[in-house]
Write a structure and sequence with these properties.
It contains four helices and four strands, in the order βαβαβαβα. By secondary structure, the protein is of the alpha/beta class. The termini are far apart.
Amino acid sequence: MAQRSLVLFGHGARDPRWAEPFRRLQQLTQAQMPEVSVSLAFLELMEPRLPELVKQLVQDGCSEVTIVPIFFGQGGHVLRDLPVMVDQLRQDYPDVAIRSVAAVGEDAEVLNAIARYCIGSLKA
């Protein structure tokens, strides 16, 4: 197991098809970073949940976890729920570096890519 892990963190949904783009994103990311473990975790309704995934990563020898919220914006789950979970994970695993970054939708490059897609839809 890689000592570094990247966790793509999504909301979760009842319909398993909802997670397909997240799985493709995980596969694309993993292919570009084979030296890092790239995993999916969910807030609710789907497995694995973030605490269970991090527990498994730590048991497998991971020493650094970066959590990337795959949310369009910094809503309540990212602003309130995720920080509480990250704080608890840091308490549970004090020897593991655990950090969370901004939601993907807050990144200028991501927004520009989405804008290019939207503009391209006019050409279709």
